Sequence to fold (645 residues):
Amino acid sequence: MDIADIAQATIRQSGDYAAILKKYWGHDTFRPLQLETIESVAAGRDTLVLMPTGGGKSVIYQVPALASEGVCVVITPLISLMKDQVDRLRSRRILAEAIHGGRGRQEIDRVLDNCIYGDVKFLYISPERVDSELFRMRFAKMKVSLIAVDEAHCISQWGYDFRPAYLQIARLRDLQPEAAILALTASATPKVAADIMQHLRFREPNLKQMSFARANLSYVVRRTEDKREHLLRIVNNVPGSGIVYVRTREKAETITAFLNEHGIAAGFYHGGMNYLMRSVRQDEWIRGTTRVMVATNAFGMGIDKADVRFVVHYDACDSLEAYYQEAGRAGRDGRPAYAVTLLSDDDASKAGRRMELDFPSKQTIRRVYEALFNYLGIAVGDGRGASFTFNVFDFAARFRFFVPTALQSIKILQQNGYLILTDETDNPPRIRFIVQRDELYRIRVDRRELDHFITVLLRRYSGLFSDFVPIAEDELAHLTGYTAGRVRELLKKLWQLHIVKYIPGNRSPMLILSEERLPADDVRISPESYTLRKEAAEKRLGAMLRYLNGDECRSIAIRRYFGEQEPFPCGICDRCRERRKSGLGSRRNVLGQRILELVENRPTDVKTLVSSLGGDASTILDAVTSLLDNGEIIEREDGKLRINR
Fold:
């Protein structure tokens, strides 16, 4: 094939991608970097993409997968994101499946078989699933078009959210050596980006990166000792919906109550709420019933709401990576938006104390390790491969640990390979027979209903005498002819008779033991997981504090941190406005006067202003922001600007 043929093939392929985008998403054109990345992975090149929140990362792997034969395997850490993506794809008549801890063995078998022999186009899995022998055996038999790794920064111990399970992903390369890997993240420093490509065993370095500049997002830091009143002023002065990030669950609830008392429709969201309540709160906010969501960092991942006008950090973040992701949820529709951090004099000292909590002493970590196994009732030498539903609050209360200390100790133990604590997930009911099979036959005399029920259990499920086995109560109801309620009653009856141990279905984290219990003195904490990671965390916190206290343009500080060369001032952050005001005084520039003339008689949106005025869009947006700040123009609910009369 000569150069002309290759060019024609590329044109045809690009046209196919555009047709897929139009058919399934209704868009006529790709966003910046999307098509370039799609063509890179379609050519078989391993690719790392750094794209800000809301930049359209999912389209980058979904479009080339739809243009290819086989299944695209997507690795993502959050079950809620898996379910959301699967639901969206299915709504577009695209066959997608997800495997997570909430599904039983039979369901997983069916899904994996469909990926091999059926028409499944997308399979979403957690990083922990990669280490499953069952998954790897089936994965080797699949026709895999692409391996997509979401939140790829989690693979780097130098990142702000390191998850050891991500280190197993590279093992998939040995099973599907021809499949390209697409790694996706919204924020990574040059060091973390290099670490991602190394750990995923890229054939060659290949980084696609959008600028970290957000032309419509104004970064602001406000020093105040009365954060509540300052927050109220922001909410009252900036129309539209917003997010207020706080550090604790208690603060999420108290700040919500404060806003409600002042007539603001606000709701709270945190990890201590049950799944149904969180879904309701999220839906109310997306629909606009709730205007302001006050939340911990448990809120925001995968949220598809483009018209967020402000994000307020009531408490400062510990890293610019986390801050950039959370602040970036404002203004995804391209219209002016604000990212405000409220800063008090003691915030820096609080951050230092949190750093100490994040890295408990090694002696404390070993005490938590020993307490965990005592809590689970596991002796030295036992426990390898066992899994348990786990309530960290109950554990901490019973052994008198501070909850953050317990969680951080468990996290460090996980990084050293001793255990895995999953995110909250749907856990199916599980049973295990605690009598021997011969004894079971004697017990079943004169209990006809139980006899029938036990017979169905033994025919349907294997391994019931050796381990806890997930069961499907609805399926048992169908097989036995009983109602689902009666099935649960019979399971409880067997439990009361000491025939089975029965764990009802629930929604909670799972604790999985990777190794057998060791004597506490034999527990080793590697320098990489403790000393070096603590040093890296201290550097991230230092960069965050310099951003908050620095004099330079906020956008320049962020972009330089993420490795951009010679970033230019944004013109719209608080530092840029201060410089502009000191330089211009009260004089109105020519551009500002022209904008006032255009909106004098007819309200106009920003896009129309840019088209009418010509010139640099960021300069025009700068002038619009200045006029808004000075109160000379205001923004209506429909987004159009008018003179403030």
User: Anything to note?
Assistant: The chain is about 45% helix and 15% strand. The two ends are 68 Å apart (CA to CA).
